[in-house]
Write a structure and sequence with these properties.
The chain has 88 residues and is mainly alpha-helical. It has 3 helices and 2 strands. It has a domain at 19-70. Strand 1 and strand 2 form a beta hairpin. Helix 1 (20-39) runs antiparallel to helix 2 and helix 1 (20-39) packs across helix 3. The chain is elongated.
Length: 88
């Protein structure tokens, strides 16, 4: 079943369909807003923006990408299997 990025209503069929530059820019923009809210001591906005970042498709995709492309991605997990492709 295809994933749907609800904000843009764009269907994401696979890992390679994600616009990584756009995802990075959107996540970075939310992070910058969090910094500005902290500096202005607006904690309600900080909590709202943190929640927005956690549930955003872009931030989750970037987190998964970072986890699977680092050095440890070649290490087998507790199931003793290494996934080398999205299909495996």
């Amino acid at each position: 079943m295809p994933n749907l990025n609800h904000k843009t209503k764009k269907t994401i069929l696979g890992w390679h369909d994600i616009n990584w530059l756009d995802a990075h820019n959107k996540a970075s923009a939310i992070q910058q807003e969090i910094v500005e809210a902290v500096l202005s001591n607006d904690m309600k906005t900080v909590y709202q923006l943190q929640r927005q970042l956690v549930v955003s498709f872009e931030a989750r995709a970037l987190a998964i990408r970072k986890a699977v492309t680092n050095q440890g991605s070649k290490t087998a997990g507790v199931d003793h299997q290494v996934w080398s492709t999205p299909e495996s």
